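Review form for a predicted model. The reviewer records the input and the model, then writes brief findings.
Reviewer: anonymous (R2)
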Amino acid sequence: MSAKVGDGPRALIVLGRADGFNLHWFAADRSVMVTRHGRLVRTAGLPFNLKRTRLLGDEPLTTMGRSREAVPPYKREVDLAPPNRYGVIIDATVEELGPETIEISELSFETIAYRESCRARDMDWKFTNLYWVSPSNGLVWKSLQHAHPEIPAIELEILKPAIV
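Model under review:
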């Protein structure tokens, strides 16, 4: 997979471990990103990190792309560091933006684009995540996700799907 933080350089990150649905991606600078069903759920080695993510209900990314039904609003709980903020509740809604062809490494993929609008209840933090999902198998090919209020969005692109 490749990762890019804000306007920084694109980095190749490799799948180092699969722990159930948690995929641990390692970069040359020793930073780590953990994804679950395409969602960034943990980071390590960045100046500011997403320490933990817990969905309070079902993960909508498991059905997006394959089901055209509207995704109901949902919540998740995150821990952030620094500063140490535990149990931050994030309210989220998802809107389907429609079919979109994306290009990754000179290959084209037909996807359905989604916008996830998020608001942290106890913080002055509102953000939008974007996901490009395969309609055939629900794979999140590309995403633009926020992990922490102090760092820009992280762009992730799947270069080769993991088989776990």
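Findings: DSSP finds no helices and 13 strands in the chain.
Further findings: The chain has a mean pLDDT of 94.
Recommendation: see findings above.
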